[in-house]
Specification:
This protein is of the alpha/beta class. The chain has a five-stranded mixed β-sheet, sandwiched between helices. It is built from nine helices and five strands. α5 (144-153) links the parallel β4 and β5. The chain is globular.
Length: 235
């Protein structure tokens, strides 16, 4: 049975939808900024249409990117992980954004909770390990919730913590902080969880470490990533 295209009821071409969603999520732009940039290219859409597009197609794009990435990473489950949490304000209330990052700085999982206790850490770690398998080493900060959760799982001997050891995870929050300022904060926990999951997948897809590779290799990888993006959800 042929899979139906998710774009079948839309008058706008899939290429324009993918371009608008990529511009909004990949770069620290507001919805109206994306509307103006599309207008310069002769594409007339409103910012509310762009909002609807990323809400509708964002999870589809993220799930396809994540599915391909998980299939490749299952063979390398012995890599070290870095776990970190940051404060996020939602309607003036403090929430916590947990992140698991691999040794190359790519985000494995993002999880939003209201508390920063053992229950939240345990739920976050179980969710990540169910999707990516068991790591060889887990680098964390001095938060005791990590140690308590890892004792329940039974891999407390894998934990490492120390000064500057977790800079890989701390630096991974910078792209989200830039997006957070462009979005003027968020208004509900559900929308934050949805956006950070999608934003992490897109950041991983286009992250090529240009400072660590030659110009020719960087251009080739960037072209391949863009070509793969243009083929998402295509039948």
């Amino acid at each position: 049975m042929t899979k139906r295209s998710p774009f079948r009821y839309f008058k706008t071409s899939p290429e324009i939808i993918r371009l608008a969603v990529m511009m909004y999520v990949r770069f620290p732009l507001s919805l109206r900024n994306v509307e103006d940039l599309l207008h310069e290219r002769g594409i007339e859409v409103s910012h509310e249409t762009i909002r609807f597009w990323w809400n509708r197609f964002g999870p589809l794009f993220a799930s396809e990117i994540r599915r391909k990435r998980i299939c490749r990473m299952r063979c390398y489950s012995n890599w070290p992980w870095h776990l970190e949490e940051v404060f996020v304000k939602i309607n003036g209330e403090r929430h916590y954004l947990w992140r698991a990052v691999d040794h190359e700085g790519e985000v494995l999982e993002s999880f939003v909770t209201k508390r920063r206790d053992r229950t939240a850490a345990l739920k976050f770690m179980k969710k990540t390990m169910k999707r990516y398998g068991q790591p060889e080493v887990i680098v964390t900060d001095k938060l005791r919730s990590y140690g308590a959760a890892m004792k329940v799982i039974g891999n407390a001997w894998k934990q490492e913590s120390g000064r500057w050891k977790n800079n890989r995870a701390e630096n991974s929050h910078l792209p989200f902080r830039r997006r957070e300022r462009a979005m003027h904060r968020l208004r509900c926990m559900r929308s934050l969880q949805k956006f950070v999951s999608f934003h992490a997948s897109v950041s991983n897809h286009f992250k090529k470490e240009r400072s660590l590779s030659q110009r020719d290799h960087f251009k080739m990888n960037r072209t391949a990533a863009l070509a793969e993006w243009r083929g998402l959800c295509a039948t």
